[in-house]
Structures are given as structure tokens and as C-alpha cells.
Design goal:
Elements lengths: L1 H12 L4 E3 L6 E5 L3 H11 L8 E3 L6 H4 E2 L3 H10 L4 E7 L5 H4 L4 E5 L4 H12 L10 E2 L14 H8 L5 E2 L12 E4 L9 E4 L5 H8 L4 E2 L22 E4 L4 H10 L4 E5 L11 E4 L4 H17 L4 E5 L8 H13 L4
Parallel strand pairs: 1-8, 3-6, 5-9, 10-11, 12-15, 13-14, 13-15
Antiparallel strand pairs: 1-2, 2-7, 3-7, 4-5, 5-6, 9-10
Threonylcarbamoyladenylate (TXA) binds next to strand 5 and strand 6.
Length: 334
């Protein structure tokens, strides 16, 4: 592994792409201070170039390289949740290339907690980092644009093939859905805004900063690519079905011999016979961990439709509900 880390650092310093595991999902990394390297991320993903990327740092001590006018709330959140699945949107330091911020005056930063990600970031910093001695690795999720995020090294190979020079394998991701994003770049008087729900909840954030973040409504311009409606989506059409309707819907599909996949968390009534079944936990954090892999498998099982048992409508399920809504919205569109 040691040799792999030095190879990864060399590649990053040469402006190449390296995929690596984080606790949330796998990232497709490049030297965040090198606009040519960052351009390769957009090309490999097929992602529009005006979408900003998250910069991964070895520690909060590197924040000053990337952001300016850092509010005390940011330091408090970093102290409480880093390394971990929380991304802070801050005002961009002048040396941060627009390629990484999507042309915006703000930058997204986080310190991931996965040991392989941290080791890579530390080795990178020790080797002098990237262009201008800046130590940040820009990394969106390592999937093709709009598709299901990878939570395993094999998913990254499936998504990106030869487009990435090296994939570090850290096993399956523990959190399984992308980081919580909170915007702290707003002018004085405006509360922080939650741009993407995740494992770290608004309530946990409020405990640290003393105010409840504003929850962004789903309309408005997509400052976060994950906030586009069609996202995280399988190619097979998805149909979300209430638990009480699962029996009736399955029987209807079985009657007309439709090949369907089923993603469920409840105990299923007898007589439901999907072509492929993925049973996840009824506990939201465990469910989140398995969600993307389950959707990916059901998508690849040659189903006409993926039936998804509707998840509970409660705050603990908010982050999963967000991914589910987008997946259903973008599904079936090649
Ligand atoms: O958990 C994660 O955040 C994973 C891992 C790899 O760290 N990364 C990830 O990246 O989900 P990505 O690019 O798929 O989604 C992160 C989102 C982007 O959609 C981007 O729009 C948003 O973060 N973002 C980054 N910088 C931003 C900024 N300055 N303002 C608003 N949104 C920003
Ligand atoms: Mg993504």
C-alpha cells in the first residue's frame, strides 16, 4: 500500500487522476490547484464545467490556503465534525482556481475520515502538495455525471474504466451517501444554509453553532450538482411504492410476467417473487450504507422496472429520501 500511496502522489503532482475511497463515496481526485488536472475530472465524468468541486484537505490547518474571511462557525464545525462527512462552503481564497469553484467566489472544503483518504492527503502534503504548494485534492464522486455514486472500488472501474490512472481500494464505504453540505459563505445576518442533507444532520450542526441551518428548498439554481433533480439515477425505471401497496403491485407485475427488481426494508408478504431482491435495513444509517450498491445491482439485473419500497417520512430518513427522490426522477433516462 505504501508504494501505492507514493504512486498516487506522483500521479496527482503530474496532473493525473486518482480515485480514492472516502467514508461517504469514492472520489475522483486531482490536484485542486491545477486547472488542467481539474479539467480532466470534468472530461472523465462528462460533467458540465460550471459545477463546483469539493476540495479535500489533510486537516483544518490547511483551511487558510483555500478560504478567506473564515467565520468562527466554520472553525467550530471543523473542530466538531472533521475528519468526517461535512462539507463547508466558504469564501474562496484568491489563489483557488475558478476551475475548481465552477467560476464562483466560494469554495467547498472537507477533511474526509476514511483512513486511505487521510493517508493519501497526508502523503501528498508531505511531498509538497500540488501547484504552488497548495495541498488540496479536488474530488467529486467517481461516477459518470448523473449516475449512481460508487461505494466500492469495483464500481469506480465500472463507471470510469481507463479514464482514471489509479484507483485506491479501501473496501466498501461506511456512510454510503455523500457528505452534508452547509453554506457558511453568506453575508452577515443570513443563517447558514443546508445545501445537501447527509449523515451529519441539521440538528447536530445546530448543537455546535447555536442556530438551525436554513434548509434549502428544492427550487432555484443548482449550485450543487447533487441538487439537480435527475441525479444518482439507475438506467432502469424506478417506481416508488408504499409498503401497503407492495403486495398488489408485485402481483400485478407477476401476472404480466414483468421482470422486476425490488428494494425493500420491511418483512415482505409471502408470494412476492421479484427477479432480483435487495433487502436493506429498516434503520436509516444502515440503509444509506447499502443503498447505492443495491440500486446498482438491481439496475444491472436486466429488470424492466425497479420497485422501491417507499421509506418512512421522518427526519432521520431525510438524507436517504433526498437521494431516492432524485434517483426516481432521473431513472430510465440513458
Ligand atoms: O461526500 C462527498 O461529498 C463526496 C466525496 C468524494 O467527498 N463528494 C461529492 O462530490 O459528493 P460531488 O461533486 O459529487 O458533489 C459535491 C457537491 C457538488 O455537486 C458541488 O456542486 C457542491 O458540492 N459544491 C462544491 N463547491 C461548491 C460551492 N462553492 N458552492 C456550492 N456548492 C458547491
Ligand atoms: Mg456526485
Amino acid at each position: 500500500m505504501l508504494q501505492l500511496f507514493s504512486r498516487a502522489v506522483e500521479l496527482l503532482q503530474a496532473g493525473e487522476l486518482v480515485a480514492f475511497p472516502t467514508e461517504t463515496v469514492y472520489g475522483l481526485g486531482a490536484d485542486a490547484a491545477n486547472p488542467q488536472a481539474v479539467a480532466k475530472i470534468f472530461a472523465a465524468k462528462g460533467r458540465p464545467a460550471d459545477h463546483p468541486l469539493i476540495v479535500h484537505l489533510p486537516g483544518a490547518g490547511h483551511l487558510d490556503q483555500w478560504a478567506r474571511d473564515i467565520p468562527s462557525m466554520a472553525w467550530a464545525l471543523a473542530e466538531a465534525f472533521w475528519p468526517g462527512p461535512l462539507t463547508l462552503i466558504l469564501k474562496r481564497a484568491s489563489q483557488v482556481p475558478y476551475a475548481v469553484t465552477g467560476g464562483q467566489e466560494t469554495v467547498g472544503v472537507r477533511v474526509p475520515s476514511h483512513p486511505v483518504a487521510l493517508e493519501l492527503l497526508r502523503a501528498y502534503a508531505q511531498a509538497g502538495g500540488g501547484v504552488g504548494g497548495m495541498c488540496g485534492i479536488a474530488a467529486p464522486s467517481a461516477n459518470r455525471f448523473g449516475r449512481i455514486s460508487p461505494t466500492d472500488a469495483a464500481h469506480v472501474h465500472e463507471e470510469l474504466g481507463d479514464a482514471v490512472a489509479l484507483v485506491l481500494d479501501g473496501g466498501p464505504c461506511h456512510v454510503g451517501i455523500e457528505s452534508t453540505i452547509i453554506d457558511l459563505s453568506r453575508d452577515d445576518g443570513f443563517p447558514p444554509r443546508l445545501l445537501r442533507p447527509g449523515h451529519i444532520t441539521p440538528e447536530q450542526i445546530a448543537t455546535v453553532i447555536g442556530v438551525m441551518p436554513e434548509i434549502q428548498n428544492s427550487g432555484g439554481a443548482p449550485r450543487v450538482s447533487g441538487s439537480l433533480d435527475a441525479h444518482y439515477a439507475p438506467l432502469t425505471p424506478m417506481r416508488v411504492v408504499a409498503t401497503a401497496q407492495l403486495d398488489a403491485v408485485s402481483h400485478e407485475l407477476q401476472t404480466r410476467n414483468a421482470r422486476f427488481g425490488l428494494l425493500a426494508y420491511s418483512l415482505l408478504p409471502v408470494g412476492i417473487r421479484p427477479h432480483a431482491l435487495r433487502q436493506l435495513s429498516s434503520e436509516p444509517e444502515d440503509y444509506a450504507r447499502g443503498l447505492y450498491a443495491a440500486l446498482r445491482e438491481l439496475d444491472q439485473a436486466g429488470n424492466e422496472v425497479i420497485v422501491v419500497e417507499a421509506i418512512p417520512d421522518s427526519p432521520e430518513w431525510a438524507a436517504v429520501a433526498d437521494r431516492m427522490r432524485r434517483a426516481a426522477c432521473g431513472s430510465g433516462t440513458a
